[in-house]
Amino acid sequence: MTGKSVSSRTLPGYAVGGCLLLIFSEVLLFLRVPFVRDYFYILAWWPYILLADGLVYRKSGFSIIRSRPASFLDLLSWSVTFWLIFELFNIRLSNWHYVNLVPYTPFRWVGYSLSFATVLPGLFETFLLLKGYTRLGKVKNRLPVRVTNTVTLTAGLMATGILFLILPLAFPRYCYPLIWGAFVLFLEPLNLRARAPSLMEDLAKGRSGKIVLLLASGLVCGFLWEFWNYWSESKWIYTVPFVGNLKIFEMPLPGFLGFPPFALECYVMYSFVCGKGLAVHWDPDVPQGKIRIHRALSIGLQLVFWLFCFYLIDRYTVASFSLN
């Protein structure tokens, strides 16, 4: 952190550029420029991330990009990897499909990478934005939450998390919502025991602000995901059972309830890999930690995993290609 006042900090040039690019992309979209229509989601999210990071820096003096560049790069790679885990589940759940994608495979796969890489940075930049410009982070528990780091608690939560992962695969038509929260139950006890950043520990210490900020960030990003997706030519559509035809953009209204727990899930999953020395944490309140030698191996394995998943997405989740 720096000692400068907010008024003495200028908005970084990349943030100004991000704002201008977002406006320019919106204009070109409504002028129906083919390239922008195909890649609008990317052309909206990356400028937003740059703008949000700059606004956070202006407010607090901290910026993931400027203060922890290694963490920002880690967020990009793990963002793709984590989202692809949910894409694998979706092959069985069949809750969403992609339409009007570019037909040329290398361009499409680069598009997957650039799109999925925005998930974690988008969520956590929004978290820091809300933390700096609202009072949501000041929320505390009025009643203490007693968290005991016992084998019974760990086993119980992990078993529930595993059950939440299995039931959607076994009964996808009825149990698909359980996937949005399963990894919180499964990984959070491991984070607590390993002394990695833990939401359970925050609750035990009366600090509810982080959880509130994450839930709010999930809702804000959920709105932006659906808003920018709606206007894109290349987009996803939903085929979710039992939620009716009442929609906001492409998303059935009840589906917005999944975004807040998804934000918790992303935090817990990223904290887990940070605890294993495979990434640098983005949170200024969390020490950066040590990076272990097997991090390089994990990057190679992630790339192989990406290519495998991209092939499966093309085969099972892409419903149509653009005619342009």
Rounded to the nearest angstrom, the distance between the terminal CA atoms is 48 Å
Class inferred from helices and paired strands: mainly alpha
Total helix count? Answer: 13
Mean pLDDT comes to: 92
How large is the share of residues in beta strands? under 5%
User: In terms of per-residue confidence, which ranges show pLDDT below 50 for 5 or more consecutive residues?
Assistant: none
Number of domains: 1
Q: Evaluate the radius of gyration.
A: 20 Å
Structure description:
This protein is mainly α. It has 13 helices and four strands. It has one domain (69-316). Strand 3 (247-248) and strand 4 form a beta hairpin. Helices cover 64% and strands 4% of the residues.
Outline the secondary-structure elements.
Layout: H1 13-30, H2 34-60, H3 64-67, H4 69-93, E1 96-99, H5 105-116, H6 119-133, H7 151-170, H8 172-175, H9 179-193, H10 199-204, H11 209-231, E2 235-238, E3 247-248, E4 251-252, H12 259-275, H13 295-316
Helix pairs in contact: 1-2, 2-6, 2-11, 4-5, 4-13, 6-11, 7-9, 9-12, 11-12
Explain briefly what this protein structure is:
The protein has 324 residues and is mainly alpha-helical. Helix content is 64%, strand content 4%.
List keywords for this structure.
324 residues; mainly alpha; 13 helices
